[in-house]
Every structure is written in C-alpha cells, then in structure tokens.
C-alpha cells in the first residue's frame, strides 16, 4: 500500500468531528398510492476510523439509508453532512464534484451483478479514475496498488469477473472503491454471498483497512455474528426507524430494545465478548403470542408495537431515541481490532440510545415467559 493512499485517508481520522452525520432523514419511495415511507427520522453518526454495523431484517431500509448517503435516494426532510458539509442539498455541478471526489464509496452486495462481466478486473478497478481523467500510467499504478491492498496479485487485472472466485470478486469490488481514495466505505451485505473462510477474510480485510487507512466503514448486514468481531458500534433499524444504537459489546450482551433481542435470538449464534450464553433470551420469550394483550394500533404507535409482547398503552406513541437508562457505557472493545480503532478514544464513546418506552421493564417480563414454544 503506498504512503500516498495511507496519508489521504488517515488525515480524516485525526479530525475531532463526525465524518458522516445523518440527521432526521426521511425517505419516501414510489409514487402516488404506491409511495411508501421507507426511512423515518433516521439519524446516524459515523466518526473517523469507526466501524458501524447497520442491522435489521429485510426491507427495514438499510440499503435505502446507504443510497441516501451517496445521493442515490433523495431525503424528504433532514440532512446528510459529510465532514461538515451538507451534501444532501448539493445539486448539479456541485453534486457531480462531490461524487467525483470519491470520498464516499458504496460497495454492493452481489459483486457478480455489480461488476461488468465484459470488463477486465483492471478496467473495473480503474474505470472511475479514467472517467476522472487521470493519466493511464497513474490509473495503472493505482489499480495495482488497490489490488495489493485487498491481497490480489497484479496479474489478476487481466481476468474478467467470470474468471475469478466469488471471494476474489468481492475483493475486486473493495479494490475499486479503494482506488478512489475514499474516506468512508458503505458496504452493503459484503459477506452474505460468501462461504465462511471468504467471509472471515473480507471482514478481517475491512478491519485492516480501517486500521491502516483510518477509513470509516459502515457494514450493512443481516448476520449479526459477522459484526460482533469487528464493529465498534451497531445501529438497529426496524421498518425505517432506528430502534437502538450503541457500542457493539453492550448492545449484543444486553440489548435494550426487544427487537434487537429478537434479532439476536434469531441469529445462529452471536458471541459478544464477555457475553453470558445462559442469560440469553429465546425467540419464544420475545415473540407475541395470542395470549398477549392486543397492542396499541394507532397510526403514531411505536413501530415495533404490533410485534412486541411487552407493548402497553404508552406504546401508542412512537418513543424517540433516548439514552439507555442506568447504563455504564464502556469504551468499545468488541475485539482487539475495535479496541485499537482511532474512534475508540473518540467522541463516539458513551453513546447508547434506544427507542423503547419499556427499555427498563421488558427484560424481566421476558424472563418470566416460557423459554420454549407454546403448544
Ligand atoms: N424504488 C422503490 N419504490 C418503492 N419502494 C421501494 C423502492 N426500493 C425499495 N423500496 C422498499 O423500501 C423498503 C426498504 O428497502 P431496502 O432495500 O432499503 O431494505 P433493506 O433493509 O436494505 O432490505 P434487504 O436486507 O432485503 O436488502 C422495502 O420495503 C422496499 O420494498
């Protein structure tokens, strides 16, 4: 990896303000009667050098949030700031300039579909640089450099996507993003199509890029266990709303929103360092049954109320994200990688919020429920 690539991105890590600030963003997709509110009052902060996991079931709005950050979806209300500049209002030439800067790179879920099968790896990685008018020799050097950064040999640049493995294709996607010298990577399900060994390789690679380049990284994932080892912070989306946002160790050890707990209970196995497997709640303790009282059904009700077994009258009103009560928030230390992150000493410490009226009450109620399926 060249010193130049390292310097450009490491500079971002030293600044004492968030790299990305999404504030109260709403997004409506579709038109007329098919229009639907896909994001509602979403706020997300990513600090220099921080790895943030964005989780939530399918359709919760994760991809839409990433697309909003890069300007592919237009927010209706709210704003997106990148390094202090409001990018959500940029139009025309200013928007094109921002895009061409390459500072924010979106890495798509399915590399086979997102990489042009007719281009060589070299063309794919260098495409954006050519569009920006860089001389051929510089494009070539940066392509080789970016491939090396993801552990691929230079000779691979003569192959086409169909001639390399799935893991290599995902590395090519990351190399393409790195060639633009980004400061923020948004990775949409970067490992969901990969087998276990490639998954671990890509996750370690992303963590290594954060450490060596000071990159900020948002990893969108269904798979909570893949985030446990590398993310500093986890943000949980449910039907377009953030329901919990906090240090990965605390959230995965003692989730404060019943939906986060349900996600964790549904996952194959999420190992939070210091976690207590015996204390974990089961899916059956967290799912509504016909025996539970009917949840409030007003239009402004908590977004999770209809599925929540602990909903009470107060849940007829959507709770705002509020600091977790009584929590002692330690510095993120989900892994040695996370603990050594530039963000771990930064202002991201101590931030743990949850949107639940019953944040202090539902755990005891859940434990009192039977841990096995009702017959
Ligand atoms: N162009 C569109 N028009 C209308 N609705 C859309 C459009 N694109 C997405 N949606 C809807 O927006 C919601 C959020 O979609 P999004 O892809 O952001 O969710 P996601 O959490 O990334 O899901 P997944 O994990 O399956 O990728 C979904 O209900 C989806 O059907």
Automatic annotation (TrEMBL):
PROSITE patterns the record matches:
ABC_TRANSPORTER_1, ABC_TRANSPORTER_2
Q: Which UniProt keywords apply?
A: ATP-binding, Nucleotide-binding, Transport
Family annotation (Gene3D superfamilies): P-loop containing nucleotide triphosphate hydrolases
Source species of the chain: Trebonia kvetii
Q: Name one Pfam family in it.
A: ABC_tran
Return the similarity comment: Belongs to the ABC transporter superfamily.
Protein name (Swiss-Prot/TrEMBL): ATP-binding cassette domain-containing protein
Please provide, alphabetically and separated by semicolons, the GO molecular function terms listed in this UniProt record.
ATP binding; ATP hydrolysis activity
Record domain ABC transporter: where = 20-264
Q: Could you provide one GO biological process annotation from this protein's UniProt record?
A: transmembrane transport
């Amino acid at each position: 990896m060249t010193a130049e690539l390292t310097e450009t991105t490491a500079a971002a890590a030293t600044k004492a303000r968030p790299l990305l600030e999404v504030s109260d963003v709403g997004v409506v997709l579709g038109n007329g009667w098919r229009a639907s509110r896909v994001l509602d009052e979403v706020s997300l902060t990513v600090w220099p050098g921080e790895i943030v996991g964005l989780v939530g079931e399918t359709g919760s709005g994760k991809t839409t949030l990433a697309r909003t950050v890069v300007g592919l979806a237009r927010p209706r209300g709210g704003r997106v700031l990148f390094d202090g500049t409001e990018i959500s209002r940029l139009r025309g030439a200013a928007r094109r300039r921002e895009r061409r800067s390459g500072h924010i790179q979106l890495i798509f879920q399915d590399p086979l579909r997102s990489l042009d099968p007719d281009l060589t790896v070299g063309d794919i990685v260098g495409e954006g640089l050519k569009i920006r008018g860089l001389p051929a020799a510089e494009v070539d050097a940066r392509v080789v450099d970016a491939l090396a950064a993801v552990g691929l040999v230079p000779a691979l640049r003569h192959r086409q996507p169909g001639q390399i493995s799935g893991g290599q294709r995902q590395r090519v996607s990351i190399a393409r993003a790195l060639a633009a010298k980004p400061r923020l990577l948004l990775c949409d399900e970067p490992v969901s199509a990969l087998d276990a060994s490639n998954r671990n390789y890509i996750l370690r690679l992303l963590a290594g890029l954060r450490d060596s380049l000071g990159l900020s990284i948002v990893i969108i994932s269904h798979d909570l266990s893949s985030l446990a080892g590398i993310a500093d912070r986890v943000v949980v989306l449910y039907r377009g709303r953030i329901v919990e946002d906090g240090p990965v160790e605390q959230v995965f050890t003692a989730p404060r929103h019943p939906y986060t707990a349900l996600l964790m209970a549904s996952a194959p196995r999420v190992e939070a360092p210091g976690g207590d497997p015996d204390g974990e709640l089961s899916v059956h303790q967290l799912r509504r049954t016909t025996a539970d009282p009917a949840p409030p059904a007003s239009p402004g009700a908590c977004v999770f109320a209809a599925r929540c077994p602990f909903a009470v009258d107060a849940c007829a009103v959507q709770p705002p994200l509020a600091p977790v009560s009584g929590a002692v928030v330690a510095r993120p230390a989900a892994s040695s990688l996370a603990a050594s992150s530039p963000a771990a000493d930064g202002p991201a410490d101590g931030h743990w919020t949850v949107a639940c009226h019953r944040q202090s009450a539902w755990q005891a109620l859940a434990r009192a429920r039977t841990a096995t399926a009702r017959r």
